[in-house]
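ZP: hey, is the S-adenosylmethionine complex queued? I don't see it on the tracker
AM: it wasn't, my bad. submitting now with these inputs:
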Amino acid sequence: MSVAELGKRVGRHVYAHRDAAGDWPAPVAERVFAAEALAGTQAWNVVKWSEVDEARLTLLTYEDLEEAFPALLESLTVDLGRRAVLRRSYRLRANPPVLHRKELLLGRDDPRRARFARLTAQLEALGLLNATTTIGTRLGWARRLREAGVRVVDHDVLAAAHDDPPVVVRRHLAALQRSSLSTPVQALLKYGLIAAGDRVFDYGCGFGSDVEGLQAAGIAASGWDPYYAPGAPRTSAEVVNLGFVLNVIERPLERAQALREAFGLAERCLAVAVITSSRASLASCRPYADGHLTRLGTFQKFYLPEELKSFIETTLGAEAHPAGPGLMFVFRDPIAEQDFLAARQARRTFSPLASLAQRRVRTAARMEAVRAEVEGLARLSYELGRPPAPTECAPDLLVRLAEARVTLAAAIRDALGLCDAAVLDRARRQRIEDLSVYFALNLFNSRQSFGTLPDGLQRDVKAFFGSLSSAETAGRSLLQSLACEETIAAAADEADAAGLGWRDPEGDLWAGTAKLSHLPPPLRCLAGCAERFAGGLDAAQVLKFHVGRSKVSALRYADFGTALLPRLETRSKVDLRALRVRRFDHYAEDQRLVFKSRLMDQDNPDYPRQAEFDARLAATGLVVDGLRARWLDIVSAVRARS
Ligand SMILES: C[S@@+](CC[C@H](N)C(=O)[O-])C[C@H]1O[C@@H](n2cnc3c(N)ncnc32)[C@H](O)[C@@H]1O
């Protein structure tokens, strides 16, 4: 498949299913790989990439492609350049985007392609895919089909039957982000049916709060859900939980199938929990099938206690034992069954395992409530290169944490868990470099005691150096390193390689003062010494580091920002070995800065124009002194060339 035929194109974006990964060009596959690593997940099924912005791509999770029009469940937008990930969940949205023309996302040899393409052709023939602004979301699309008097069954367009209710049941919206363990899991723990060393499988696990709570208590728990964890394996376990699943399924046959499958995985015991009619609130519901439709679009079958028992027993052919309101246990292991019956008679207290799991779920729910604040703390930690102190946090952030009963220490722990360790480490090293330069240059001032340093600096000193004297030692050794020619040459090489300056054929480094704070510490320190000794750098825009001679020249130009060949006004040459400063006025002799693009960022909007001009100037064979040339020489070189 050629690159032009690949995926579904929308504007300058391409969408492709991961099943077609074999067809992707290598650079796309590499970017997807990098995005997965950055997002820390492989749970997605469609990738969207831009043909114009290579750094951005989005990993999307849609419902299974066997759905006629799969809805978007989640998106992870990854910016590879800034190493940032933005997660957006659509799972709880009543009207998520839906996917049309699915065949375009698949490889040419994919067996599903023909079936999906046939559906698209039928819809196109009816003109149903024209109004692209309204059909892209679930409700808009359902309305369009309804208005056209059609329905889609098994990828075929049929005339709508008159008794067809225009209903889309959104089962997964019934799931809750729990702040404590669900009642069936609590009961399983209470009766000792889940013990240390057991495996637990949560069939229809929703957001997975029970699984997380059990895992936190050291139990090998896992789960599957057709919406929230469709790719997770369905594995057998000593204990299986089917919690509040049967009541959200509107088709009785499918209810029985889910029950049988869940029991099939249970080696010891299955817990089945449903909402009972006594707990039902029917105020905002309307009758549908053998239950009710809620305003959210979910289905609820409210069971009578006897109804649940007989449904389970007739479906599974095993006795269902009531264990609480709307809760039944069904046993595969007769010994466990007898233990349970005996335990039910005895008074039981909550087991330590249960309270540990319960506590973990509550903590997780509290942390989820302050997710934005935790992310803010992660950003602040990147900025500081260390965890922030309370006084460095925004007061309203502290208030929101307190309201959610989350301590700052816990929020910071979570924030550090979110941070990319390599990025945090880089931020930390940069802060140490900045502070070493600060303390090196501060040695020229009279010594300050620790207590007189500003609060933030005190914290930096403690976090990065341990003590003020260690910080000063770091500064002193940086200052001493300036006498070493190799150190300066290596720093100049590093700056040149990083595009922060340009080394001329003599080995001297030219750099714009705008990038001074990004230069390697020895050069920053050298510039700082020169500035202090000369009493300022005369608003210079360019510095020249004379490598091996302990000299720094500061050059100031007229119209530096706008001119292609800025005119040199003054030059100060600071000799740090001889401790001498010489100032020159060059205006009258008309010297120019040539090849200014060597000192510019490539993302500067003026860069292309300057680079093109510089290339033409270089083609004249003009003889230059570093980045300096006389105007007359420039003019004659250009004339000679033309
Ligand atoms: C009310 S939630 C309960 C989630 C979880 N067990 C709990 O107690 O928090 C119902 C869940 O059943 C899932 N579900 C819907 N149909 C299902 C089926 N046929 N088999 C298994 N789970 C299903 C939904 O996706 C939803 O997450």
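AM: back. Residues 482-598 form one domain.
ZP: great, adding it to the tracker
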